[in-house]
């Protein structure tokens, strides 16, 4: 047994010396061509290194891809936030530009009206719109404390849209022109004339045709010189609507009741949809 242990130690020592010489041979460069054992050992070591290198490289690449994916996710998250903020800022900018344009137009409108007449224009915001399609009214944020009175004309920068039909302390109700009806005692007809022919033309807008979207003007004399394309304005007669406010453009002239007068259809100049601000027209009292 002791002899076997001694031989085993000798074998281990010899094996160590062989490995040492092999390694020494591998580390020495520029000594000429390698021997067959050296080539065998080098090829074996390279093959074993390849076995470990490929899985290690794959694992390293996998974790590198995960790290890159995390970076891309964070970048994508940041880009989405930036795009969202850009869209919000763009929408806000467009809204401010539209509001700024409207205010400039409103200012120019009031300046022109001051030169044309002595009316006072109270700008008001629309706070509610009636959801009832048969009761086209809206509420504005001006009332009795602001000097608003019943039957005052209401308009936008485009033209007449209605009249005040109810006044409260802090707000008022406005009846729109597309709710005017000659069978309703609470509705007020509009005395109108033609712009440029104020002394020659006359008619009464008494109703709104829901099928065509046009205002209906009656009581037009057959000899009246009004023509298709003429601009219709308030005449000031009737003591409800002041004179000179544009109402709309004549689109057709036809026979009226009993063939005695003409029936005229007028396309409203102002839109009755999406109204946000209006002007309440205050006429100075004659004292």
Automatic annotation (TrEMBL):
Function: Involved in formation and maintenance of cell shape.
Domain spans labelled Rod shape-determining protein MreC beta-barrel core: 126-282
PANTHER family named among the record's database cross-references: CELL SHAPE-DETERMINING PROTEIN MREC
Organism of derivation: Paenibacillus eucommiae
One Pfam family matching this protein: MreC
Keywords, alphabetical: Cell shape
Family: Belongs to the MreC family.
Name by which UniProt lists this protein: Cell shape-determining protein MreC
């Amino acid at each position: 047994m002791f002899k076997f242990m001694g031989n085993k130690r000798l074998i281990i020592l010899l094996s160590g010396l062989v490995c040492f010489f092999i390694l020494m041979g591998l580390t020495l460069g520029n000594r000429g061509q390698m021997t067959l054992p050296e080539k065998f050992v080098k090829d074996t070591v390279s093959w074993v290194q390849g076995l470990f290198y490929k899985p290690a490289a794959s694992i390293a690449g996998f974790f590198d891809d995960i790290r890159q994916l995390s970076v891309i996710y964070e970048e994508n998250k940041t880009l989405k936030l930036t795009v969202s903020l850009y869209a919000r800022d763009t929408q806000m900018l467009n809204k401010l530009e539209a509001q700024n344009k409207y205010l400039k137009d409103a200012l120019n409108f009031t300046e022109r009206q001051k030169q044309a007449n002595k009316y006072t224009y109270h700008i008001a915001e629309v706070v509610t719109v009636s959801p009832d399609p048969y009761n086209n009214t809206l509420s504005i944020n001006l009332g009795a404390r602001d000097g608003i009175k019943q039957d005052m004309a209401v308009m936008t920068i485009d033209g007449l849209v209605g009249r005040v039909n109810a006044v409260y302390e802090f707000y008022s109700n406005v009846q729109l022109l597309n709710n005017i009806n000659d069978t309703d005692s609470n509705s007020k007809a509009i005395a109108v004339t033609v712009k440029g022919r104020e002394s020659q033309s006359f008619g009464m807008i008494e109703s709104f045709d829901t099928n065509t979207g046009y205002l209906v003007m009656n009581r037009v004399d057959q000899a009246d010189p009004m023509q298709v394309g003429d601009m219709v304005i308030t005449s000031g007669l009737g003591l409800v609507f002041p004179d000179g406010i544009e109402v709309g453009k004549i689109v057709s002239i036809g026979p009226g009741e009993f063939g005695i007068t003409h029936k005229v259809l007028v396309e409203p100049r102002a839109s009755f949809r999406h109204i946000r601000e209006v002007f309440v027209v205050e006429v100075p009292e004659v004292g």
